[in-house]
Design goal:
CATH architecture of one domain: Sandwich
Largest sheet: 13 strands, mixed
Strand content: 35-45%
Order of helices and strands: EEEEEEHEEEEEEHEEHEHEE
CATH topology of one domain: Immunoglobulin-like
Radius of gyration: 24 Å
Number of strands: 17
Structural class: mainly beta
CATH class of one domain: Mainly Beta
Helix content: under 10%
């Protein structure tokens, strides 16, 4: 229920009450909240070292209110069409788990319907304009448009079969070329083997950690790994996590390894990725899906590399590159 009041500002003290004798409510409006469908969808073109591509596309459909109806939005027809005339149809998944794993801005407790498509090679190319269309079971329609950001390449990175190594307890600065049409570069990393690598040096804690790093703007094309990565959930105060983050400031501990993904994301993605503690361009989310509901349709190009922390040895992957200084 939304209440809108036009009146004098009220003070809480008895002393101010005498000053408010002339104040009166001039308008009180009660508005019923509307139950609408929210579409959160992202299309990612993964760029492989051998020149091949892969498309991953999801759409997570849920509601603002249940209003006596189930939260799932089942039976929808979801498709994405490209300027080339290619059409990809998304299939409804058994649950929203896959979508929630991809969508960091939806609550883990959200209940909705997940629609997926995975195609190799990708039928869509960087810089292509693509359109999302959702036809609901009741006939409602939602749509959104995006231009996929351009492709990008790593600069100065040595790797073999998507793998490279860093010296233990050493940071590495990733650099990449500019991707036209990008509003933000997002890098996620899943670091594993921490408990074994650190042994008794730290209190018992998680063996793996999921961290994120951001570079805002098309020309911001470097990030220190893992020193400039952090928890997306900034409210986490678990002591063992804090200790791990301090260790990672100095680099990956020997024996640990990580998958590191880099995505060049479009304007729609950044405009929706607002609120909480991550506000690259404001705190109010701006939708890019319109019609009988709201939401966003974002696109990205992506590259992935696997990094292991170990000294050089026979059969080890190549050194990613010269180590970088620990951040101050």
């Amino acid at each position: 229920m939304v209440r809108r009041l036009h009146a004098c500002t009220l003070a809480a003290t008895a002393a101010s009450a005498a000053l408010l004798g002339g104040c009166a409510l001039t308008e009180v409006t009660l508005t019923e909240s509307e139950d609408v469908v929210i579409v959160e969808s992202q299309l990612t073109v993964s760029l492989e070292d051998d020149g091949t591509t892969e498309l991953f596309l999801y759409a997570y459909l849920h509601r603002t209110l249940s209003a006596g109806r189930p939260d799932e939005v089942e039976g929808a027809a979801v498709r994405v069409s490209g300027a080339s005339g290619t059409v990809v149809r998304l299939a409804e998944a058994d649950s929203g788990g896959v979508c929630l794993a991809r969508d960091r801005f939806s609550s883990e407790s959200s209940v909705g319907s997940c629609y997926l498509a995975n195609v190799s090679p990708s039928p869509f190319t960087p810089r292509e304009v693509v359109e999302l269309e959702v036809i609901l079971a009741d006939g409602g329609r939602l749509s959104g448009v995006s231009r996929i950001p351009d492709a990008f390449d790593f600069v100065g990175l040595a790797q073999e079969n998507g793998r490279c190594r860093v010296e233990p307890d050493t940071n590495y600065r990733f650099n990449w070329t500019e991707a036209a049409g990008t509003w933000s570069y997002l890098s996620d990393t899943w670091i594993l083997g921490l408990e074994q690598a650190l042994g008794p040096n730290l209190p018992p804690g998680p063996d793996s950690l999921y961290l994120s790093g951001f570079a805002i703007g098309e020309k911001d094309t470097d990030i220190l790994f893992p020193g400039e990565y952090g928890l997306f959930d900034f409210d986490s105060e678990e002591e063992s996590i804090t200790d791990l983050l301090r260790v990672l400031d100095d680099g990956l501990p020997g024996g640990s390894w990580a998958e590191v993904a880099f995505a060049a994301t479009d304007r729609n993605w950044v405009n929706w990725a607002r609120g909480g503690n991550f506000n690259p361009s404001g705190i109010i989310r701006i939708p890019s899906v319109f019609g009988d509901g709201t939401g966003f349709f974002g696109t990205a190009t992506q590259r992935v590399v696997n990094v292991i922390a170990q000294p050089g040895s026979e059969g080890a992957p190549p050194l990613c590159g010269p180590g970088a200084a620990t951040p101050p």
